[in-house]
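Kindly draft a polypeptide, keeping tokens residue-aligned:

***
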Amino acid sequence: MTPRTQDRIADSGERVYHTVVIGAGLAGLAAAYKLDRAGFTDFVVLEKADRVGGTWRDNTYPGCGVDIPSPVYSFSFNPNPDWAHNFASQPEILAYIEQTVAEFGLDRYVSFGTEAIEATWSDERRRWLLNTTQGRYVAQFLIGAAGPITEPRLPEVEGLDRFTGEVFHSARWNHDYDLTGKRVAVIGTGASAVQFIPEIAPHVAQLHVLQRTASWVVPRLDIPFPTPARALFRWMPGTQRAVRFGLDSILRSLSAAMQHERAARLLNPIGLAHLYAQVRDPELRAALTPLFTMGCKRLLLSNTYLPALARDNVELIPHALTRITERGVVAADGSERVVDAIIFGTGFDVSHPPIAGRVRGADGRLLSERWAKSPEAYLATTAPGVPNLFILLGPNILVYNSFLDLAERQLDYIVDALTTALERGIETIEIPEAVTRAFNDKVQHALSRTVFNNGGCASYYLDENGRNFAAWPWSTTRLRKTLSRFDIENYTQTQSAAEPAGHAHDLATR
């Protein structure tokens, strides 16, 4: 049995592992399971917090929940028959994550309270050297599982430091501040805002919602799973697999529609029908009508957001925030609203993943420096100049489906890579710049016809240069097939000085 983390300290004071995984969210825990199942037990998952869960641990705002059906947004190796609804809430998801960790004993691989400050590739040692809050770790392979939605994004707005009231981001909700009877401004109308606005609207005195751009809101088919259905899922797992397959098929069809702007445009009437059914005021409805094709920006699922905006104590301001005064917020039309609190629902800085600023490659440059113009990778998983590094949910992997499923598909690719390296006695693997360039040229060419690039909006899929760094331009099926086998022939390799022998399990655990 592999010694526990605290027992693996070498004479140098370093903790040495075959593989280090950064982050114990959904992706990092899936990595732990898949590595363990493949026989790789010489690894550790570094988690800066004292609890697993990642984004589902950190986001606790009112109404927080998943916007992908729960049966799909689940570990493939641990389907949950006990989801209460088709769309699970944050507490339910976090409980499910912790139940998975307990059931499969994944906590034995997690080193809590250990933040990776910087990881540097050593050409001399052919290893990753990680400086952490708990000392030095050394690993042959590094898997970045911190995810793209970890760091809240606050806009650079004049006067924020002068405001005398309460300020927080939805991802860092201040539960100690009572919003009851307060005058509140909400900045942003994205996926988080459409969930918490209906929750707080009945309790505040006045709610001012500043909307830069109207987005498509579609019905949230949040049907409950009654007790008999849950019993059926438990005693006949095939029924739940069938439900998962059916929901996945719908999501794959939606992704297929997004590959062509004209096809995506056919979905606009769904959003318009939902808007007309829920908003009767013509002026408000006009302000909420998007001027771009559905799918160009992230779809928002809600049955309660639009009605909340029609409440007497809620005001939709169809303008961006321009500055903040000591007493309130000023919109682009010059009008000011005096408020007691400002809540930013402005999302995350997905174009600058935090891990990129903590990984230093063979030439000494940070990955974030390589990605200064735009994030770019091969199959969203590997990048030139950073040998033996794998990134989960990297650039150009977004499709309308479960992020967890995408991460698991990448992990199958990564585990195949590690197994291949061990069996063939390969010490380092790296994707060449030429292969990466050719792949990304094809991606960008294919994206040119999609709704993401042609839908008439400016979304977070596009970086500051207008380049689409986020979306996958082809079908979900193609993505899964591409990641089903590690294409060693496209990588440069360095043989190990040691003789290759035995099976992956034997090599990984010795």
Summary: The chain has 16 helices and 20 strands. The chain has two domains: 5-151+349-509, 160-215+298-344. The first strand starts at residue 15 and ends at 22. Confidence is low (pLDDT under 50) at residues 1-7, 499-510.
